[in-house]
Amino acid sequence: MAVTKLWAVKHNLSYVLDYAGNPVKTKNPNYTEEQYQALSDVIAYAKDEEKTEREFYVDGINCNPATARTQFITVKQSFGKTDGIQAYHGYLSFKEQNITPELAHKIGMEFAKEVWGERFQVLVTTHLNTQHLHCHFVINSVSFTDGKRCQDTSWFKFRHIADRICEKYGLNYISNPRRGQPHNNYYNKLDKAGMPNRYSILREVMDKAISQSRSMIELEYNLQQMGYIPDFNRSHKYWTVIPKGYKKAVRLYKFGDDYTNEAISERIYRNRAKVEIKRFHNGEFKKRQYNLPTREHKILRQSGLYRLYLYYCYKLGTLPKYQKPKPSQIHYLIRDDLTRLNTLTAQVTLLARHNISTDEQLFSYKHSVEENLSKLIADREHLRKQVRLKTDDVTLSTAREKLSRTTEKIRKLRKELKLCDDIAERSKVMERSLKQVIADEEKTNAKEMDKNEQLR
């Protein structure tokens, strides 16, 4: 059995109730229309609120399924708590495929009564429209007994109840579920294949930032300089970082024992004991090795936006090199763009085809594309009018062919407009990233030269 967490419903309470009680999902697919009619004839409203009406596999606890929405709202109004979270919606899924709908619904009812039945109104439904049967729960956020809001919203708080009920009926359940996994299967596969993803990149960024920091303030500053948003508030249970280009924060403890709050603080503290020893250079350093011209030198002979994009693609390893780098060897600041190679290729092709090197040339070309696009749109409207006139077959066929060609041209021009906007937006970001990449590479090369000098 798999149990998912509850989620809050803040708007459109009726939609959730209608979805949970959808007859298409809750009716038994083996019933005939005559059985449906017979079952409907047996259904009757209860005499009081302690009993409920049953329609297929839809039941109510402390409420009537047919009027659940009205009863939910009435309780909220009576206690003056109509704002905020309206209800909680969750489900209970069964791994076994041979379980009967009756038993699944019985377990769902027993579970809901034990957890919420004493104080809250609950709509319980069993959906039969998927491979695995599952029970839905819609819980009113306000108690009908004391008017207090529902606090039992954590599955890990009462999952033992679900496990005990499943064990009672001989069903499988997860005795020790693992919580807070850092990656799903998709990201695990990317890690094994050596492909970059936001988790692996964030882990490398954290390691680099920690190695260069001697205090938490310095760590926050280093992460912000890299484009990440840290939250290292001492009062928070978990420290988080929002990766570059994303809106959702990632809890660092999910990366392992070395990334908990205490472990990060300890790593920062150990950096204070390190003493950085630099070699004193007397005079200018003279290179003793002749550097052969490479593709990088040829790219640097270009100018403007075209040179910027070519050099960026070269650093990504998409242009031919003597030895193509692995994804893990590419600088972390630009590694995310490996997933946008098609877009980068189209942008470079556009710059090369039209000899665009400066921002002025880019906006001039964009203006000409917009003018051509306006003319083509006007021509297309004229052709559409000709088609609607329904003239002779020859004229109609010619107009349709012209209309198709014009539409295709409009589609291409709109793509080029989108590429122009992307180039204008991305070029400054790429320029800043390349400056940082070059600076880091120069530091690395300087260290290697120092080592070589010592060996000599």
Descriptive overview:
This protein is of the alpha+beta class and 456 residues long. It has 3 domains: 2-168, BirA Bifunctional Protein, domain 2 (2-Layer Sandwich), CATH 3.30.930; 185-271, no CATH class; 295-455, no CATH class. It is 51% helix and 8% strand. It contains 15 helices and 9 strands. It has helices at 13-20, 23-26, 33-42, 68-79, 101-116, 155-168, 185-192, 198-211, 216-225, 261-271, 295-300, 304-316, 341-353, 359-389, 393-455, and strands spanning 2-3, 7-9, 58-61, 87-93, 122-127, 134-140, 229-231, 240-242, 250-251. The strands form 2 sheets. Strands 1, 2, 3, 4, 5 and 6 form a 6-stranded antiparallel beta sheet that branches. Strands 7-8-9 form a 3-stranded antiparallel beta sheet. The longest helix has 63 residues, at 393-455. The N and C termini lie far apart (67 Å).
Rg for CA atoms: 33 Å
Task: Report mean pLDDT, rounded to a whole number.
Answer: 76
Strand content bin: 5-15%
Low-pLDDT segments:
28-55
Overall domain count:
3
Question: How many strand segments?
Answer: 9
SS-based structural class?
Answer: alpha+beta
Helical element count? Answer: 15
CATH topology of the largest domain: BirA Bifunctional Protein, domain 2
For the record, give the distance between the C-alpha atoms at the N and C termini, rounded to a whole number: 67 Å
- How are helices and strands ordered from N to C? EEHHHEHEHEEHHHHEEEHHHHHH
Tags for this model:
flat, 15 helices, single chain, alpha+beta, 8% strand, BirA Bifunctional Protein, domain 2, 456 residues
